[in-house]
């Protein structure tokens, strides 16, 4: 089928839309893809919702207004693709993720989207996993595994979005996954506070600073790094760390945060040492993060473009793939990817 995947990630930068031809097992063909950025005002109210989410009720009027507004941007993205399609995969915007309390919350109005576009919409990808005791994230590993079928293993695929997550693919066909730690979200917030910019473009600020080795050691003693795989994070899980560097210069803070993203990846205990790392997500454009990864992992580290994938749209493509799996009743997650007891179906379809 021809499926459009829609992803609004933890960076809150906008909606990614990507067209994919797939049966939910193999990827037939990639198609057009685009991003519609959120306007600063919408981005700011979504950011507020992340802080408010623990105390919000599902019918809160402000929440419903934001949910509708961001769904409209998703509809715009689908229309802008201007490509024929049969099904939509709509991730929505995560505003809260607390799998240990069996809660994960993605906002967005799937019924409205389906009605407006006149096509079925698969959504609510994470809640069945969390209800079964899983982490509810990451969900991208089955898609990575499908894409990487012919690549040499052991291989790691690292997405550096707001949060960073890794998929490990073993030579024996095994698969493992987790969120590794912060991706760009802390760095984005730091840069926003210090320069008013949304992110550290091309890692320029980080390049002017020096990572604080003592701070990195202290941060790596966080209990998250002791936990076995699989495990997942909320966007705000490591947020309090920003208090520790309040007195640092803007550039040293940026350098320390970029180094921490890489150090957290290196601290992740995978089943075996990957021979090769492929990097996707916006963080692959940050040379400070990429150089730190290459240094600490000491095996080839390349953007996913090196194997012909598009690192700006892999997640949107993933939710097209998963939409097809929802439709076919195929599992979205496995014990080794999210900690569910058995391979787990999920998602719902509107109408
Ligand atoms: N040229 C660049 N230089 C440095 N960083 C960049 C650049 N372009 C993008 N980024 C970083 O990538 C981020 C966006 O990444 P991406 O779109 O992969 O995140 P996301 O999909 O929202 O997150 P998640 O994967 O957690 O859901 C930006 O917020 C910024 O930090
Ligand atoms: C709860 C949630 O939305 N998690 C996201 C987030 O962004 C990156 C990382 O944390 C990952 O675990 C997940 O997204 C990707 C697409 C996933 O589920 O695979």
Automatic annotation (TrEMBL):
ATP binds at residues 9-16. SUPFAM superfamilies: Actin-like ATPase domain. The keyword Nucleotide-binding applies. It holds the Pfam family AnmK. GO terms for biological process: 1,6-anhydro-N-acetyl-beta-muramic acid catabolic process; amino sugar metabolic process; peptidoglycan turnover. GO terms for molecular function: ATP binding; kinase activity; phosphotransferase activity, alcohol group as acceptor. Pathway: Amino-sugar metabolism; 1,6-anhydro-N-acetylmuramate degradation; Cell wall biogenesis; peptidoglycan recycling. Its EC number is 2.7.1.170. Keywords: ATP-binding, Carbohydrate metabolism, Kinase, Nucleotide-binding, Transferase. It catalyses: 1,6-anhydro-N-acetyl-beta-muramate + ATP + H2O = N-acetyl-D-muramate 6-phosphate + ADP + H(+). Gene3D superfamilies: 3.30.420.40. It comes from the Bacteria. Belongs to the anhydro-N-acetylmuramic acid kinase family. HAMAP family: AnhMurNAc_kinase (MF_01270). Catalyzes the specific phosphorylation of 1,6-anhydro-N-acetylmuramic acid (anhMurNAc) with the simultaneous cleavage of the 1,6-anhydro ring, generating MurNAc-6-P. Is required for the utilization of anhMurNAc either imported from the medium or derived from its own cell wall murein, and thus plays a role in cell wall recycling. This is Anhydro-N-acetylmuramic acid kinase. The gene is anmK.
């Amino acid at each position: 089928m021809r499926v459009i995947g829609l992803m609004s990630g933890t960076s809150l930068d906008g909606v990614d839309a990507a067209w994919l031809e797939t049966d939910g097992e193999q990827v037939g063909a990639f198609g057009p893809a685009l991003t519609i950025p959120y306007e600063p005002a919408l981005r700011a109210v979504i950011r507020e919702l992340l802080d408010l989410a623990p105390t919000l009720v599902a019918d809160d009027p402000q929440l419903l207004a934001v949910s509708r507004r961001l769904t409209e941007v998703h509809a715009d993205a689908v229309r802008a693709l201007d490509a024929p399609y049969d099904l939509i995969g709509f991730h929505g915007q995560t505003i809260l993720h607390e799998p240990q309390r069996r809660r994960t919350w993605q906002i967005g109005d799937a019924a409205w989207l389906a009605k407006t576009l006149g096509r079925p919409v698969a959504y609510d990808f994470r809640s069945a996993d969390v209800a079964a005791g899983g982490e509810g994230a990451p969900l991208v590993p089955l898609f990575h595994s499908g894409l990487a079928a012919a690549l040499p293993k052991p291989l790691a695929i690292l997405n550096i979005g707001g949060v960073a997550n890794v998929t490990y693919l073993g030579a024996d066909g095994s698969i493992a996954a987790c969120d590794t730690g912060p991706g760009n979200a802390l760095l984005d917030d730091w840069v926003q506070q210090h320069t008013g910019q949304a992110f550290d473009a091309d890692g320029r600020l980080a390049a002017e600073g020096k990572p604080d080795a003592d701070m990195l050691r202290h941060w790596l003693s966080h209990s998250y790094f002791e936990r076995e795989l699989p495990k997942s994070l909320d966007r705000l899980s490591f947020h309090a760390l920003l208090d520790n560097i309040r007195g640092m210069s803007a550039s040293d803070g940026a350098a320390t945060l970029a180094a921490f993203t890489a150090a957290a990846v290196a601290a992740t205990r995978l089943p075996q040492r990957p021979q090769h790392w492929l990097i996707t997500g916006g963080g692959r454009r940050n040379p400070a993060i990429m150089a730190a990864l290459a240094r600490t992992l000491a095996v080839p580290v390349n953007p996913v473009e090196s194997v012909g994938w598009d690192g700006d749209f892999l997640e949107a493509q993933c939710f097209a793939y998963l939409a097809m799996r929802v439709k076919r009743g195929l599992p979205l997650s496995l014990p080794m990817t999210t900690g569910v007891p058995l391979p787990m179906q999920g998602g719902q379809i509107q109408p």
